[in-house]
Automatic annotation (TrEMBL):
UniProt KW keywords: ATP-binding, Cell inner membrane, Cell membrane, Membrane, Nucleotide-binding, Translocase, Transport
SUPFAM superfamilies tied to this protein: P-loop containing nucleoside triphosphate hydrolases
Lineage: Bacteria, Pseudomonadati, Pseudomonadota, Gammaproteobacteria, Enterobacterales
Organism field: Samsonia erythrinae
Name of this chain's protein: Nickel transport system ATP-binding protein
Family to which the UniProt record says this protein belongs: Belongs to the ABC transporter superfamily.
Length: 286
């Protein structure tokens, strides 16, 4: 597969103090592949992607190279990055409510986005919005179109964000922990939607999560981050089975411990089951 993105020695620091926040971040991403960024809170996952999107403010300095289709993202002026965001690089945020204007209906915001980036007429943009909402398995889309963000659940807003991103057909789609704030059933639905996106459209993706289980479900390769550094990377299954770095081993072991506790709750030991049966029998006699 041909390479879409290559990041070389990317560094981010606080301008006032020089304190490093990201150091020597490097990875490559082939077209149609998905890279999972995994690490604990504060490891630099989201900062890495905000840097690639050109969303750092003046309090930070940045160096290195990030080549996307031959364009160095880290060397582009703000106006060029604004043009690239959305159409070339799409981003799905962790908290979907923050991505929408609370004073406008989601339909109006979708139409404005599509008329701006896709050069559609308002009527065409409305039709495109309804079509894309259906494509991410939303129901009663005409009613949803006229609702305000506060009238829509977090899971539905997340699907609408996905619909907007896909309509713009970006070369690269970045998903920043899109399931973290959702309940388990909605998390499953959103992950199913992302899997369908990959299988149907072959969209190149960076998927951020603190959960190796989520990364294993969606990504081909994984980059493990710790304290602002990339400490290990490789194929997801290989890293899960044979983690090399101490921090990767810790993350994998933590995931396995949670799985064991979950299985223990589902399948209690035989003596515990006998106690449960006796309790049930006693209740029936009483």
């Amino acid at each position: 597969m041909t390479e879409l993105l290559r990041v070389e020695n990317m560094q981010v620091a606080l301008k006032a103090s020089g304190e490093p926040l990201l150091e020597d971040i490097h990875f490559s991403l082939p077209r149609h592949a998905c890279l999972g960024l995994v690490g604990e809170s504060g490891s630099g996952k989201s900062l890495t992607c905000r840097t690639l999107m050109g969303l750092l403010d003046r309090a930070f300095t940045c160096s290195g190279r990030a080549w996307l289709n031959g364009v160095d993202l880290l060397a582009q002026p703000p106006e060029k990055m604004r043009a690239l965001r959305g159409k070339t690089i799409g981003m799905i945020l962790q908290h979907p409510m923050n991505a929408f204007d609370p004073l406008q209906s989601v339909g109006k915001q979708m139409v404005e986005t599509f008329t701006t980036h896709l050069a559609l007429s308002p009527r065409e943009a409305r039709e495109r919005a309804l079509e894309m909402m259906q494509n991410v398995s939303l129901r009663d889309v005409i009613a949803l179109f006229d609702r305000y963000p506060s009238q829509i659940s977090g899971g539905m807003l997340q699907r609408i964000m996905i619909a907007i991103a896909l309509a713009l057909e970006p070369q690269l789609l970045i998903a920043d922990e899109p399931t973290t704030a959702l309940d388990s059933v909605t998390q499953h639905d959103i992950m199913t939607a992302f899997r369908a996106i990959r299988e149907r459209l072959g969209t190149t993706m960076i998927f951020i999560s603190h959960d190796f289980g989520v990364i294993n479900h969606i990504a081909d390769r994984v980059l493990v981050m710790h304290q602002g550094r990339s400490v290990e990377q490789g194929e997801v299954r290989q890293v899960l089975r044979h983690p090399q770095h101490e921090h990767t081993r810790y993350l994998v072991a933590s995931r396995q411990a949670l799985q064991r506790r979950y299985q223990a709750l589902l399948s209690p030991p035989a003596n515990d089951m006998e106690a449960v049966k006796k309790e049930v029998a006693y209740d029936r006699v009483g």
